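Aim 2, interim progress. The first record below pairs a target sequence with its C-alpha cells.
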Amino acid sequence: MRRVRELRGLSTYDLSRLMEAIGRPIAASAVAKIERAERRVDVGDLTALAAALRVNPSALLLPLTDRASETVEITGVGSVDAESAWDWMDGEMPIERIEPGDPTGALLQFQVYARPPGRRMQLAPGEEG
C-alpha cells in the first residue's frame, strides 16, 4: 500500500482524508500501522483503500512484479511464483499448477466456480481447459 500511496504523491494524512471522503474513515496513524503490518485490514477496508488509491485490490496485496522467477507468499497457499499469483488474483487462472492437457479439469472448474459467465475464458472447440 505504501508503494502505491507514495507513487500517487500522497501522505498518510492525505490518504486518511480520502478515506474519510469515501465514507470509510481510517486515521493517518492507522494507515501507517497498516503499511507496517501492525494493523489488520478487513475486506471492506481493502476495497475502500484500493478505491481511494484508484487501483485494484490485488495491487495492494501483491508486489509490483509478475516475474515467474520471483516468489510471493500467499496465506493459505504458500510460496508461488509472482506470475501465477497475479494470474490468480486477477481471476485468470487457478492457483494450482495445471498439468499439460489439464487431466483434472482444474481450469474449467476455476472458470465455472470463480468467474461469472460473461468473464470466463472462451475455450477452443474440443478444449477442456
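The second target in this work package is listed in the same format:
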Amino acid sequence: MTEEDRLEDMIVKTWGGCTLPIRPVGGPAGTAFLYNELLESTPDGDRVREWVLTAAGLTRGGLGEFRLRPELIEPAGAAADYLAVLEFDQSWSRRANVAAMPSGLLHDHAERKGWQWTMAQVADGVAARAEDLLVLSGEPHRAYALGHVTTEPGAPGEQRPLAVATSGVTRDPDGVVRWAGALPEGFTGAPVFLAQHRSGREFRLLCIGLIADGDRNPTVATFDTIRKMIDRLGAGATPGLWERVTGLLRRRPR
C-alpha cells in the first residue's frame, strides 16, 4: 500500500460520514458536508456550532434535495431515501462561491421522523487557517476531494456512492486556488484535504476548503473565505443554528 492509499483510507475513515449528496431539482448534482465552528473550550467539552457547507451554485432554485445516506441514520431503515426542501434557495446564505446553512434543518427533520443522525463533521481544528494556506503557491500540492459521484443523473432513487479524487492544488497568479484537472460529476461542493508534512513520516491532514464549481480546473473556496462568512452569520440572529457540547445538540436561544 502506498502513502497515497493510506491517506485516502484515513480520509474516508475519518470524514466519510460528514458528507451528503445534494441537488437542486433540475440542476447539477453535488456534495455538501458538515462543519463545526469552535466557539469555546470548557471543562465540560468544546462548544461548537454546526453548519452545512456546499458550493453556492448548488443552492439555487425553489426545490432541492439531500440524499439521506442509510449508514448515517439511527435506527437503521428509519429514514426515507431523500429529504426534499421547499424554498431551497432561501435556506442558504452565500458569499463568493460558498453557501452555508445552519444544520437545524437536518436535525429538525430527523426529530420529526423519530430518528437521529450519526454524521461526522469537519472540526474547526482541521479546517485550514490563513497561515496554513501560504503553502499553496508555486508547485502543485497533492490534494484529495471527498464527494458523491453520480451514476444515473437525475434518476429517482439514484445511487450516489462516496469516492475520493486525487490531484494537485495550487494558487494561480491571480491568487485563486485551483484544483488541477477535471473532477467526476457530483463533486462540486466536496471538501478538499491536504497533507501537511511535519518531520520524517509525520503529517497532518487539513481541510483547505471546498470545490466551488464544476469547471475543469475548478476553484477551491478556501476556509479563510468560509470563516469570514460564518463569523458574519454567527454574529447575527440566524435561525436554525445548533450548538454541540460533549456530544449533545441544542438549538441556540434566540
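The chain is about 15% helix and 40% strand. This observation will shape the mutagenesis plan for the next reporting period.
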